[in-house]
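in:
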């Protein structure tokens, strides 16, 4: 993954977890981006983004609970409508 790919992932994470990333900026943000580039250097950005979104969808803690529960209910309703 290159820097542009990581920034796309960070945008998704910031939208999903705004409180966690609220005060991250400057040098700290650059460090986070560099870490992600190192950790996923050989990985397909599409796969990494899919993994991040899957983890968000499965997250049932705190303020993400509603999103994860809604996703589960959608899956249940989808199976009933078939």
């Amino acid at each position: 993954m290159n820097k542009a790919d990581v920034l796309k992932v960070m945008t998704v994470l910031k939208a999903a977890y705004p409180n966690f990333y609220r005060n991250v900026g400057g040098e700290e943000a650059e460090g986070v981006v560099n870490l992600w580039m190192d950790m996923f250097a050989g990985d397909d950005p599409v796969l990494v983004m899919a993994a991040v979104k899957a983890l968000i969808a499965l997250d049932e803690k705190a303020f993400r609970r509603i999103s994860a529960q809604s996703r589960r209910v959608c899956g249940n309703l989808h199976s009933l409508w078939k």
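note: The first helix runs from residue 3 to 16.
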